[in-house]
Structures are given as C-alpha cells and as structure tokens.
Amino acid sequence: xxxxxQVSIRNLSFTYxxxxxPVFENVSFSFDTSWRLGLIGRNGKGKTTLxxxxxxxxxxxxxxxxxxxxxxxxxxxxxxxxxxxxxxLQAAPEAEEWQLICELNQLDVDDSVLDRPFSTLSxxxxxxxxxxxxxxxxxxxxxxxxxxxxxxxxxxxxxxDYLRRKDGFLLVSHxxxxxxxxxxxxxxxxxxxxxxxxxxxxxxxxxxxxxxxxEQGRNEVLRRDIRHLEESARRTAEWSAxxxxxxxxxxxxxxxxxxxxxxxxxxxxxxKKSMNAVRRKERAIEEKRSLLHNVEKVGELKxxxxxxxxxxxxxxxxxxxxxxxxxxxxxxxxxxxxNFSLRRGERVALTGPNxxxxxxxxxxxxxxxxxxTGDISIAPNLIVSYVPQQTDDLSGTMENFIRQSGVDxxxxxxxxxxxDFTRDLFDRPLERMSQGxxxxxxxxxxxxxxxxxxxxxxxxxYIDVLSRVQLEGLLLEYxxxxxxxxxxxxxxxxxxxGSVRLGGAP
Length: 506
Fold this sequence. Notes:
This protein is an alpha/beta fold. The chain folds into three domains: 6-208, 3-Layer(aba) Sandwich (Rossmann fold); 209-290; 312-501, P-loop containing nucleotide triphosphate hydrolases (Rossmann fold, 3-Layer(aba) Sandwich). The protein has 14 helices and 17 strands. The chain has helices at 47-54, 84-91, 97-106, 123-134, 153-164, 176-182, 201-246, 260-290, 358-366, 398-405, 409-418, 435-448, 465-478, 489-495, and strands at 6-14, 24-32, 36-41, 61-65, 69-73, 140-145, 169-172, 185-189, 194-198, 312-323, 332-343, 347-351, 372-378, 384-387, 453-457, 481-485, 498-501. It has a six-stranded mixed beta sheet with strand order 5-6-7-3-8-9, sandwiched between helices. β8 and β9 (194-198) form a beta hairpin. The longest helix is centred in the middle third of the chain and has 46 residues, at 201-246. The model has no long low-confidence stretch (mean pLDDT 86).
C-alpha cells in the first residue's frame, strides 16, 4: 500500500431522503491511507454513513477523492452454507490458499476451518475469517465497522494485535481498550466539526476534555454577554415604544404651546435610532449564540433501585447449560459447575469465551428462554429489569414501543434526550434507527423500571464511547445489584464488584 496516498474530502454535505437534518454539512478533512485510523463519534453522528459515502453508495454534494478501492467490513455472504475457503476466496478472489492460512494463523484460527461450512463457525470465528480474507487483498482500503461485537475479551485482544500489525485502515469501534491497542490516529466526528489527530482513544479523550473545559468557560462568558444584550435590547425597545407613544399623547396643560409637528418628528427620529439599536443588539445576540458550539455534553441519568429484604438475590449452584441437537452447533454442553451468587449492591459480570453459555444463563434467570439447570434460587417477589442482547426485532413507532413496555413516556424520553437522542428521532420508525440508537431504547426502557436487580446482556454493543462513560457514572452512583455480560474491559474494571468465569481459560 502506498504510504503517501491520501483520502481527501472537501465541502461534503449529505442529508438522507425524507430528513431535514443534515448528517454532514460542508465538512472538509483528509487522512493518510497508511494510518491505523479510528473513527469516533456519538451514535447517529454519521460514522457508518461516512463509510458508505466513501464507497459512493449515496449521492452527495462536495468532493471525495479516494485513491484506493474501499472495501466494507463486514461484507455480505452470498451462501452461508458454502465452505469457509469459498467464502474467503469470494472476498479475496486473487488470494492464494497459503496467504489465507497465514492470515488465519495470525488470528489464532486453525486452518481446518477452511473445509467447514461457513455457517457452522461461531460469530467470532466468522469475524476473524472475514478479516483475514480482507487483509490478503493488495488493492483494498479496509473500512471496518464494529468488528468487536461478536468477540469475547480474548478475541478482542487477538484482533486488536492483528490490526496493529497492518498498514492502514479506517475502523469504527466504541471499545476503548481495543482502540488504544490498535490505532495510531483518530478521526473524530464532533457536534459541530471534525478532528483528525495523531494518537489513540486516550489521546482523543484528553483533548476532548480539555476542549470541553475551554468551550464551557467560553460559553459561560458568551451566555452572560447574551443576557446583558437581551436586557439592553429590551430596555431600548421599551424606551422606543414610549417615544412613539409620546408623539400622540401630549399633556393638555402644555398642548397649547407645543408644536405637535416638532414632537412627532423628534419622536420619529428617536424611534428610528432606537430600532436600529435594537436590531444591532439582536444581530450581536445571534452572532454570540452561533459561537455556542462543540461542547459534548454527557447528561445525567437516574435510576430507581428497589431495596429487597433478602441479602442474596440470585444464587446458582452446580449450574449447567446444555444445547440440544436443534441448536446451532448441535448438542453440546456449553458450561457446567457454574456457581455464583448476587447480593444487594453487587455488580457481577459473567465472562468467558463465545458460546460458553453466558447469555443462556441470563435468559433463563429472566424467563426469556435459555437452558440453565442446577440449583437455582431467586429471592421471592424479585423485580428484574432486563436488557436483551439483540435489537433486530425492534420495529414500529416509538409510541408503540413505549406503550408495550409500560414505562412512563416523559421519563423515557427524558432519559433518551440525556443519552444524546435528538428530538427528530422520536418520530423515526424504529427499524430505520442505527443499532446504537436501538440499543439506547432498550437501555432507556430498563432505566425507567424500578427494580431490585438489573440484568444486562451486552448492553454496550454499538453504544458510543461518551454514553459508555455516562453509564459507568450512573452505575457507580446508584450501585444497583446487577448481573451482566459485557466485553468492554474498561467498563467492567470500573463498575463491577466481581466476575464469574465460564468455560475455562481461553
């Protein structure tokens, strides 16, 4: 790959059909194709849209100069029943088998998978296989969208180390540890501008915090100036109104000696001057308001934690998860000898490799399926608030979602607003929302429900980094009892009081 090739974007504007809010408006930036570039931004700020525009999938205004052939990951598979070898060769037609094997070995995937139907691979294995095929191509510029969603902690470390050894790519990920491990530059889609900078996630966060402190101080000065200008404009307008009124209301005691024509002319002159002053102040107010921008706010979230009389809320002794023959992968034991308890105020994470039964345990405990057996004890009258892993079944209107969820509409929407949900999203069909926006709906619903225990299954999938920080603060402040499955190492380290490993060592 040419180390000096640049992607140049000039005066880019784009708005989706039927929307009045631009995703991009006259933005310009450039980056080098040799960089390991992380794309960071809030949910709905246009990360995936930018990847699609780089592939020329939508018409846009402006200029995009792309010197290499952009290839999007994950790319669609025509036949999931085909062999893994055929799937990889479909993605990289010019690759030799030895090249495929070399890339697979770097990802700790045995080359025996080449002869297996692609559909029989785990989601994590599929992710690694497709990445391996992508990086055998010499002509491609990889656009990698959320590669970590189906990877366990060990898989994320493997893939991050793999990407760190590559020449260049554009990567969308919200996993802070993953970004720190594999990128050397950041492309940041902010509230009102775009940053391109050297560094990793920590470098970006430090700059963001510094910028926010500066902008907040500057905005406070601007708001104070705006208040003074508004008060001055109000007084000027009142004085102008009195002058206008004065030319028609001359006291009877002086009417005989006053030249009404002179009074009227004088009042009209004063009126004109005062109105010009009001307009100047209104322009000044608008100019200062236009400077109020680019502060990434993290709104406050609240939680109603119910206190249960029992100390131990959930207990599992000698737990076992076994999938029957009709499950993907056939009949097998996912995990056994599972032992843990959840007490009030504890936040316990179930950890382990993909397929070890973590989600099945959570589903079984909330009565949503699963195949957990053993000595399972749940405190009587326990109220549980649940966030499922999948968002694919969300459709229809937000009003129907709120009604079916049985939550308070005002509270629900207030939580979404504090999670950076714009008001226009309230009228958007759920199936047209991004994966991150859908996940926020599920999180907001859970936060609306007063509960003794919160059970969250991969709650951070597709959730932007600022919202992750926001949720960390919430859980640390309210300290609810929580059982969760999550692969964000930074999040787990900050909020969990303990963990239970399933499935043995990776």
